[in-house]
What does this fold into?
Amino acid sequence: MPLVLEWTDLHGTGGSLSNRSKLLQQLIRPYEDFTEKKSKKLSEKLVIISRGPQERAINLGVSESRIVYIQGGADVEKIVPRPKNEVRKNLGLPLDKKIIAYTAGTHYNTDFFIKAINHIQKARKDVVLVTTGDVFENRHKEALFDPNRIIELGFLPYEKYTALLPCADVFVFPFTNSSLNTGRWPNKIGDYMAAGRPTVSNRTGDIVRLFDEHKIGFLASDNPGDFAAKTLELLANQKLSSEIGMRARQTAERHYDWRLLSKKLEACFIEVRKRHEINNEAQNLKTRYKSNE
It folds into this structure.
């Protein structure tokens, strides 16, 4: 039976394990490290989502010919650009504010992000942060310059989540340089592009090439002040933000549509299947030849 594996995130040492309690890290680390490394050598094809896992796989002895690089995509069918005020009216969000939006299933880089938001809140009183997904701990919200200027909507049904995204003026995505972040691809970036809005993030991992090639937003250093400055620049220049947002949507449609990426995955499966059919036929011929001797 042919085996195709995926490596979409780094889970062991240096990866998402670091986000767990120390006790859990001690219990899980040996298992995660062993299975994450050993299993990759068994696959006939290894589907990776970013260059970080690819480098790790090669260092483990996986040949490049077995590696298939497929990034996360964008749902361009259900997430579509819409007038901001129309979206805000439907969802009861403020019409007279600038909205920076952020989505997260799990928070990483929280201290960095809170510092950056503080710079933004101090610079402009008309900026509101709207988040979906995991809510911040109270200690993080209390550390904000103005805790009243954050609206946390929590985890939303997918239909409401997709309808919400175009409410933003700018998307913000803290993604500081770490082994955890270089070992993954943030699927939220596809959602942001599909919504047709610019994004501010950090110069980390595979998104550097995405931003450099397609100009879908600004990349900041790992300095909260720089992250804030680039966000404020987009908030202050509506014409530039609109142009970048249009490019982001075009990039999503042309390069990151899930339907396009699924064809790459399908081609991987077909290649593996055909190879096995050829090998099986060769083995059958060899068996018949021996039986006739």
Observations:
- Strands lie at 4-7, 45-48, 67-69, 98-104, 127-133, 150-152, 170-172, 199-202, 217-220.
- The chain has twelve helices and nine strands.
